């Protein structure tokens, strides 16, 4: 309310200031006691506009509030003709000056509001189509409308008919855009097309109207005056660009301050408008450019700030609309009462028909061109664009000004105002009201059965949740006596696709064709088996189901991209581009994003940058002719002099001195001392040129001047030019001295001026030829090439960012596909498409990283830095909520975070990491310098050509590979043996980076630098179940199995040692996928689950027979092997999530399991809050059943030893090795084969062997 009150106050201040300043002499009599009634009139207009707009929206009345305001104004004007008190109040509306002053404030408000709310991305994409519609098509519409005006009103001149046509082409379809958003038409595209036409057509209309108005007044009469007027008008674009850049720069300083942004946009709007009006009379063009440029920066603002700014400008527009509509409506009766008759009112309908037909024909004529530019337009789209061409309220202001400011032509101008007002009202009444009917007729308003069924299912889910919530609240002892029937009736929702509210499931399905459909299936009841059997959908239903499934996927993608932007993994431009791609795909029949455009971005290059890069590279690669130093001493002296920097500077000064002489006076007076001095200076310049000629000639003479010097000197074009200029200079000096008496002064002046211009021009070229020898000038091509490369790298970095986040989105879609699409055939089709796009983009990203590693390094480093800062920002907020920091400290911490964000945005291109740094940053290295140095000293480098096999199927990896450069391809084809082991014993397929959903399907994946492979095969000593080949020239670090074994012995911690960390790295991705399927985690985002799983650990359970679950464990995930619930005898096979109800897990080494296997069970344990992994394992060891081994330390003592080792120095290294040996002795192996079926032995027949540890 405070913000709205401030805006209303600003409106009144603007209006009062403008009107008081603009009063002319004949309006000074208004400054009496009744003059301030105009403020009461304006306040009443604003209040009535707000009330009428609220009532129309509340009761869903199908008319615009603009019509209501105009009719109320007309009624008020009629009453003013008969009532003196009403006339006294309305007198402000009768003043031409006040209406004109209001128009000055109203025009920039409407223009800036329209420009500031535009979707700039689509606007730029379809700018060519907008220019065609707003240019040639609009001019054709002007001619047709003008011809109609000349036919039905013979008193209008040709210029006045053109003025009528020009005024009527400006459109303002904002009142009907809501209908388009709810329809199946290409909403975003059509809305942006109409939005852009509103701006461009208004700019064109305003300038043409200005020219014709000045021509009618007599200010413009000649053709060149029109040309100069257009030239001044074009100055509005650079002026708007400069002011827009200034506004964008100031918006960055007010990023988080909504009031400052409101004042800034207001100042930018009105300052740009009036400043451009003063400078170039191109105020509307300048305002449009400023608004569009600031709209592009608006997307970078927070969502709440964007909504506040748009609400501010909508409020301003609504207030000014109310004042203008009621004011012009009240003015109309006084203008029409004397000059207009009944037939003029009837002709308004003719004008309406001709205006619509002219617009439709203009669009149809240019439809073949429009189809080939931008997005594809159909004939139905042209009909919608023609029907939505509601007239701009600025046309009312222009027609009102025309009626009040052209003397002696009252009847003609009043006729124009009448027809413009009638055309505006009829457009709103007929076109605006019947647009839903047109959309239904064209088939754009009908909702598919699949979408209706989907909405029914959603409402069923909402009502089921409501029922559960009411049941829970009834058990609350404070709410048990609430009026629950009233609660139920109050929480009834309105069906989005129906006229009435939906009360319950029975009413929702009653008398509906889709009542038998649930989740996209139609069921038939079988009386024999007494079950509902799903029917196969018809081809039409299947197409609708497929389209709806794709739409769901696209909507989920949009949510994913927004979340990536919130997590700072995606920049503002990136999320806007991806959102726009989703919006375009939603408006197409296929409902599919075209990835080809993204792939082309990796190879696309600006033509200017490409031309500059090629030519600059040619310049840098061109070698200058190196002359051999002469043998002669004098020639060698000349050679050294010519190639010295001071000599080059001396020659450049000589050339500059000669140019100054040539431009001072063409014909010196030899009788004057100054003329003689000037001639002497000319001869001095010639002497210096002559000396320079011989010095350069001697410098290239290796042995002889005539045999070597002259041929070498005249090889160069610049040397020939210098010789010719020297001769011209000599001839010019001789001509001035000897022929000055024989040739006439006028002829001499003419000849000398021509020669002077020629010589001076060539001397300027000579200066450039001399400059190329300076060292700083030689750096210019290098700087230009570097700048061009930076532009190319910036474009490739943007493409790389889009591709990386698109792949991340596809991976998340694949993980959630089973939840959003239930039809198996459709799901498989979507999955195959997503996999194909993901693999294509992965390969493209890898190739881009190989060709331009700096691009990939920059994008990854910036994204990682922003993600870390974003996580730190969330932690700071959590500290504030928890009470650890106060408001002052919280603001200081946020300021520090903001400074880091700003620094990241200013970071230039980052060089790719060194190979050793890539090795050190492998996740399971854990910053252990001793371990890293040991592994680095035992590393081997392997190189592969395209097509080389890195690991073949059936071979053991025998080590871990760390890819440094290149691209590797892994192909996985599951066989029956692998799948049987997976189903029977939980033995994972030995393949890297494999999803759970892809274990039973053929799959292939690309590995990029930084990825590691071979961990699972090395730890389990099982053969590889896939094939890894080199797709490009690649290089990888190799750590042998023996090296890994010795490294594990160096870090034998059974909770967080090297082996445990490697297993965590193997199971991290599988754990996230499993957690997302757990109902308790479905409300969490992918990033939250990642953050949650990162706390997990994978302990060494080789000594455990029975594992006891306690309250310190939040979740348990089975990564490898199988376990059995001790109480329920349920068998869990990897990979799976262990329910929280399980209390004891029987491991394969227990005597309760009859199967002996070499497969070691691996559990990933997520600790509960405020517990760490060592506390958990210590408590588990106290109650768990372990394998009976001798000479084994308990975990309690191992933890003490670990703490001692971590807190001590090198003296404890021997103790660390002793602990490693103790743990090594505790491992046991089984050699019996795995049986096909796991049997559980009753606890009554076997006794558990227990091991007691001294603690």
Automatic annotation (TrEMBL):
Pfam families: cNMP_binding, Na_H_Exchanger. It comes from the Eukaryota. The chain crosses the membrane at residues 36-56, 63-85, 105-124, 131-151, 157-177, 222-243, 279-295, 315-333, 345-370, 415-439, 641-661, 673-695, 716-736, 748-769. GO terms for cellular component: plasma membrane. Residues 935-1048 form the Cyclic nucleotide-binding domain. GO terms for biological process: regulation of intracellular pH; sodium ion import across plasma membrane. It is found in: Cell membrane. The keyword Cytoplasm does not apply. Keywords: Cell membrane, Ion transport, Membrane, Signal, Sodium, Sodium transport, Transmembrane, Transmembrane helix, Transport. It is a multi-pass membrane protein. This is Cyclic nucleotide-binding domain-containing protein. It comes from Zophobas morio.
């Amino acid at each position: 309310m405070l913000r709205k009150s401030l805006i209303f106050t600003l409106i009144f201040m603007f209006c009062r200031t403008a009107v008081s300043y603009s009063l002319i002499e004949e309006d000074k009599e208004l400054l009496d006691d009744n003059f301030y009634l105009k403020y009461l009139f304006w306040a009443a207009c604003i209040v009535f506009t707000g009330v009428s707009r609220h009532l129309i929206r509340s009761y869903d009345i199908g008319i615009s509030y603009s019509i209501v305001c105009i009719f109320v104004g007309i009624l008020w004007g009629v009453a003013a003709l008969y009532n003196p008190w009403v006339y006294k109040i309305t007198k402000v509306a009768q003043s031409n000056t006040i209406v004109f002053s209001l128009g000055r404030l109203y025009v920039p408000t409407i223009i800036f509001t329209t420009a500031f709310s535009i979707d700039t991305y689509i606007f730029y994409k379809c700018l060519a189509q907008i220019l065609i519609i707003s240019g040639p098509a609009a001019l054709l519409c002007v001619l047709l409308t003008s011809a109609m005006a000349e036919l039905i009103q013979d008193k209008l001149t040709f210029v006045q008919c053109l003025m009528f046509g020009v005024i009527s082409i400006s459109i303002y379809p904002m009142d009907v855009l809501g209908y388009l958003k709810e329809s199946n038409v290409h909403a975003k595209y059509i809305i942006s097309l109409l939005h852009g036409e509103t701006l461009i057509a208004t700019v064109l209309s305003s300038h043409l109207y200005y020219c014709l108005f000045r021509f009618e007044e007599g200010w413009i009469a000649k053709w060149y005056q029109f040309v100069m007027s257009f030239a001044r008008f074009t100055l509005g674009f650079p002026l708007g660009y400069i002011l827009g850049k200034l506004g964008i720069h100031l918006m960055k300083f007010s990023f988080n301050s909504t009031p400052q942004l409101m004042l800034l946009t207001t100042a930018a709007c009105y300052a740009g408008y009036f400043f451009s009006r003063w400078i170039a009379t191109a105020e509307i063009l300048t305002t449009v450019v400023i608004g569009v440029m600031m709209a592009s920066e608006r997307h970078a603002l927070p969502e709440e700030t964007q909504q506040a700014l748009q609400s501010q400008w909508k409020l301003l527009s609504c207030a000014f609309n109310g004042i203008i509509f009621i004011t012009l409506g009240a003015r109309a009766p006084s203008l029409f009462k004397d000059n207009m008759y009944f037939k003029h009112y009837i002709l308004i309908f003719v004008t309406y028909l001709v205006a619509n037909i002219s617009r439709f024909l203009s669009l149809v004529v240019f439809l073949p061109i429009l189809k080939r530019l931008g997005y594809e337009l159909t004939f139905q789209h042209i009909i919608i664009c023609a029907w939505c061409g509601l007239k701009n309220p600025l046309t009312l202001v222009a027609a009102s000004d025309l009626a009040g400011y052209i003397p002696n032509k009252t009847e003609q101008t009043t006729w124009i105002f009448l027809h413009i007002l009638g055309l505006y009202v009829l457009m709103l009444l007929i076109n605006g009201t019947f647009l839903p009917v047109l959309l239904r007729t064209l088939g754009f308003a009908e909702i598919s059965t699949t979408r209706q069924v989907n909405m029914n299912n959603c409402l069923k889910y909402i009502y089921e949740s409501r029922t559960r919530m009411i049941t829970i609240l009834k058990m609350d002892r404070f709410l048990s006596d609430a009026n629950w029937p009233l609660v139920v009736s109050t929480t009834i929702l309105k069906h989005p696709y129906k006229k009435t509210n939906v009360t319950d499931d029975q009413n929702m399905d009653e008398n509906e064709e889709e009542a038998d459909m649930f989740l996209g299936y139609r069921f038939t009841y079988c009386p024999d088996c007494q079950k509902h059997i799903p029917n196969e959908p018809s081809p039409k239903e299947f197409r609708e189901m497929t389209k709806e499934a794709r739409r769901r996927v696209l909507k989920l993608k949009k949510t994913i991209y927004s979340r990536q932007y919130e997590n700072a993994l995606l920049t503002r431009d990136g999320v806007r581009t991806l959102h726009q791609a989703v919006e375009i795909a939603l408006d197409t029949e296929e409902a599919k994003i075209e990835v080809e455009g993204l792939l082309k971005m990796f190879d696309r290059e600006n033509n200017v940058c490409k031309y500059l890069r090629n030519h600059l590279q040619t310049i840098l690669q061109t070698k200058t002719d190196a002359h051999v130093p002469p043998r002669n001493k004098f020639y060698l002296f000349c050679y050294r002099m010519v190639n010295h920097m001071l000599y080059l500077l001396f020659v450049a000064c000589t050339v500059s001195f000669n140019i100054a002489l040539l431009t001072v006076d063409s014909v010196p007076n030899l009788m004057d001392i100054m003329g003689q001095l000037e001639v002497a200076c000319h001869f001095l310049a010639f002497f210096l040129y002559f000396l320079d000629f011989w010095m350069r000639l001697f410098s290239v003479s290796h042995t002889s001047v005539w045999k070597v010097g002259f041929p070498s000197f005249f090889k160069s074009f610049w040397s020939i030019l210098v010789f010719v200029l020297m001769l011209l200079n000599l001839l010019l000096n001789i001509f001035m001295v000897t022929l000055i008496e024989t040739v006439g002064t006028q002829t001499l002046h003419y000849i000398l001026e021509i020669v002077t211009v020629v010589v001076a021009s060539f001397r300027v070229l000579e200066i450039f030829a001399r400059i190329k020898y300076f060292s700083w000038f030689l750096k210019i091509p290098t700087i230009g090439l570097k700048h061009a490369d930076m532009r190319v790298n910036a474009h490739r970095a943007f493409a790389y960012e889009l591709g990386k986040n698109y792949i991340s989105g596809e991976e998340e879609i694949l993980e959630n596909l089973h939840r959003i699409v239930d039809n198996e055939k459709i799901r498989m089709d979507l999955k195959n498409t997503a996999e194909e796009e993901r693999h294509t983009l992965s390969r493209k990203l890898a190739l881009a990283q190989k060709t331009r590693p700096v691009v990939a390094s920059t994008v990854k480093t910036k994204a990682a830095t922003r993600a870390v800062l974003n996580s730190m920002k969330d932690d700071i907020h959590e500290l504030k909520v928890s009470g650890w920091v106060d408001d002052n400290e919280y603001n200081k911490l946020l300021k520090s975070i903001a400074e880091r964000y700003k620094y990241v945005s200013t970071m230039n291109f980052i060089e790719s990491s060194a190979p050793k740094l890539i090795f050190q940053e492998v996740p399971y290295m854990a910053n252990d310098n001793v371990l890293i140095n040991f592994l680095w000293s035992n590393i081997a480098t392997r190189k592969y050509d395209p097509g080389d096999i890195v690991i073949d199927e059936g071979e053991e990896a025998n080590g871990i590979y760390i890819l440094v450069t290149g691209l590797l391809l892994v192909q996985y084809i599951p066989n029956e043996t692998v799948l049987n082991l997976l189903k029977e014993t939980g033995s994972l397929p030995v393949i890297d980076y494999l999803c759970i959903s892809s274990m039973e399907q053929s799959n292939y994946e690309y590995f990029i630098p930084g990825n590691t492979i071979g961990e699972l095969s090395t730890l389990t000593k099982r053969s590889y179940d896939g094939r890894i080949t080199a797709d490009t020239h690649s290089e990888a670090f190799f750590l042998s199995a023996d090296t890994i074994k010795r490294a594990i012995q160096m870090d034998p911690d059974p909770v967080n040692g090297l082996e445990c960390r490697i297993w965590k790295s193997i199971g991290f991705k599988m754990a996230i996928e499993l957690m997302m399927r757990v109902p308790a985690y479905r409300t969490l985002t992918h990033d939250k689950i990642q953050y949650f799983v990162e706390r997990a650990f994978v302990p060494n359970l080789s000594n455990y027979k029975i594992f006891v679950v306690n309250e310190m464990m939040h979740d348990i995930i089975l990564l490898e092997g199988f376990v059995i619930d001790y109480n329920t005898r349920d068998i869990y096979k990897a990979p799976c999530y262990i329910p929280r109800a399980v209390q004891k897990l029987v491991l394969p080494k227990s005597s309760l399991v009859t199967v002996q296997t070499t497969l070691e069970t691996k559990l990933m344990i997520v600790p509960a809050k405020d517990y760490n992994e060592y506390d958990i394992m210590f408590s588990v060891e106290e109650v768990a059943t372990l394998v009976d081994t001798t000479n084994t330390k308990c975990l309690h003592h191992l933890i003490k030893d670990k703490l001692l080792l971590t807190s001590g120095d090198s003296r404890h290294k021997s103790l660390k090795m002793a602990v490693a040996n103790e743990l090594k002795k505790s491992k046991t192996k089984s050699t019996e084969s795995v049986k096909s079926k796991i049997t559980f032995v009753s606890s009554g027949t076997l006794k558990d062997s227990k091991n007691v540890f001294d603690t």
